[in-house]
Amino acid sequence: MSGFEANFDGLVGPTHHYAGLSVGNEASQNNRDGLSNPKKAALQGLYKMKALADRGFVQGILPPQPRPNLRLLREVGFQGSDEQVIRQAAHAAPQLLSAFSSASSMWTANAATVSPSADSADGKVHFTVANLNNKLHRMQEAPTTSAILGATFADPRYFAHHAALPQHGDLGDEGAANHNRFCREYDRQFFVYGRRASGGIAPVKYPARQTLEASEAVARLHQLDPRYTVFAQQAPQAIDRGVFHNDVIAVSNRQVLFCHEQAFADQTALLQQLAQRVPGFTPLVVPASRVSVAEAVATYLFNSQLLSRADGSMALILPQEAQEHAGVWEYLNELLAGDNPIADLRVFDLRESMANGGGPACLRLRVVLTAEEYQAVNPHVLMNDTLFATLNDWVDRYYRDRLTQADLADPQLLREGRDALDRLTQILQLGSVYPFQQ
User: 60 versus 22: which is more confidently predicted?
Assistant: First the structure.
């Protein structure tokens, strides 16, 4: 059973702001307290989606989540009307208000892990929502993510949905950002973890967010064949240098793995194992002498999308920061001229997302579908000329062009966001997926 890859990008939410909430994500930390532009952020994301759709790639949209999260603010003791809760939180616990106002669901690489029907024993596409329990601002996403994915991939004949794993650090699950697939027809699963809950080597400076035990649990839920499933550990030293997810140091597509030479623990043995298991395995390993781990993190060279084109070659979708770094861009052009499947470099301005620690790969959830499964996807979330124009108008109407942490105390921001998302669910015909709509 063959399939093709569709990418579902997260639409940036109206509360996009810089609060340095993500320890281990150096861009997030370095831009703390900066002035954000939610309108520009959303338009930059939409432009990337439309540009890729125009080049023949299947492109969908996943909507943002409602913020601030009033339910959680009440659960930590703030009382009264919505306006009173927000003002109390802003006065007594501004960092909690910031965390519960985060627009981090835009990075849908962390929304879920997805296994295609070709890989699962029951022949369905499986989704397991990530619990994201390592970060306060992200652990709140799972319930609404489940509702959104359920409305987007609704047909039970083709899609199976699993709840997030139990909320405990031993089962920390960060979704597709630590998951890859290999082979010419997408039928090998490759899970990357940061640590074992049972012990072993681990980073020292920054937390390892994905555990082996979580990856193994997802593989069981998705009914994957162990013979075609590989678990590999991310290099702890890379995590301590700011590589908080595997997709900051490696990206794969079909038989190709594009990665840094310091991406994985015992990398030589791992590449040998993949060569034995993946027909035509093609590793493109960037040496540290050409691009250091620090440069990879600063430019998000590997937080790129590696996409198959109609002629069988591949396009590498990169952030503008990779082009602006002379050494990285020189290496990429040498790669382009070399004997390998990459035949096109496409650069996008995603500075609003990048400043908060997310590049092209962070913004997308990969879903491999057969033609029949594709027909069962909610068609109203798929990018086309009409939807692009409609969503640009929607952003212009509802989004602010500047936002600081102090602005989160404005109850009007809550009302603006709810009005925007209520209208968005109508545009995308998702139904009532948000708690405030119930």
Answer: 60
